[in-house]
């Protein structure tokens, strides 16, 4: 175990050492990280609690990118420096003095002047899908002695990567379970969950769901006997849970941006108990890309 820790520490120190080099800029000795390498290099580090950015030219000249404030107005000197170095070939209009913005800018310039340059900046793009659904449920996590089925309906916002057919997604779901005469219970649930696509094709996907956080606004009518008389009481409750509820579902592609959805929900939960009825929770829905 000690050997493993020593090796890990050595590799960590080597990684830090390798990632940072010592430079002298205007007489100041600085350890800087190299973020982008090309016709222009981007160097940076957090020094005395402040982010500082530098650009290095092909002749090894290092210039600091600054944004000083005078008369309550930022001077944006970094834009002038970069405009001059790039011969105004890349617009600085929307350029911010942040690591990601500078990285995109310098990456774009390097690619424009060197056909062999490999892009080092990648913006994560997300796709949003909005869906509506309806179905039936026996609410397996509440007391339901006669295993009554009740209607439900809801809506869902799904977020996944747009650059490829992503297996991973997160979703925010709102659903309402209606009350019926034989089961005087209704609830409105807000849930945050994760989805993994086991089968992941453009025309069809099959996935597992996990709801890891829920808020339920529930109403129920409870009957009890008091001196030979049946007394009913209306109860309202709000509950936050981390239940880890699992289910399965499928998306069937209708067109480039629309899907039919099928789901078998609330199969089991890790942190809340089933009340004796195996899940009968089915939904059919429609989903489209925003």
Describe the structure concisely.
The protein is mainly β and 290 residues long. The chain has three helices and 16 strands.
Helix content: 10-25%
SSE order, one letter for each helix or strand: HEEEEEEEHHEEEEEEEEE
- Biggest sheet strand line-up: 8-9-10-11-12-14-15-16
Biggest sheet descriptor: 8 strands, antiparallel, barrel
CATH-defined topology of the largest domain:
Porin
Tell me the Rg in angstroms: 29 Å
Number of helices: 3
User: How many β-strand stretches?
Assistant: 16
State which percent range the strand residues make up: over 45%
CATH class membership of the largest domain = Mainly Beta
- The CATH architecture designation of the largest domain is Beta Barrel
Mean pLDDT metric: 86
Structural class: mainly beta
Keywords:
290 residues; mainly beta; 2 domains; eight-stranded antiparallel beta barrel; five-stranded antiparallel sheet; elongated
